[in-house]
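Protein modeling request. Please complete all fields; requests missing the sequence field cannot be processed.
Requester role: graduate student
Desired output: 3D structure, token encoding
Chains: 1
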Amino acid sequence: MARFAKKDLHSIIERLNRATGSPVEPYIKGNDGRYHAQPGCWHLSCAYGGFALHRMVNDGGGVSDPFGHHMPARELYNRVHAMLLGLEMKGAA
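Delivered output (93 residues):
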């Protein structure tokens, strides 16, 4: 089996952001020189020896975790891929 790297997760999460019309970067630098959260952005969390999909939910940087925990890279990749397939099927209906 092929090994999944962090770059593979970043790539598929970028696809998810584009498919949902969400911002690609979780934070952007404003004219005031400070970083501001981008609500709606899906992004990768790395902790506890695993990975999780987070979505920015407010301007303060709060996130939701749709799967509820960190997991191995392959498992997260497969779950995000399933989300993308679901979005494609919804658009085709």
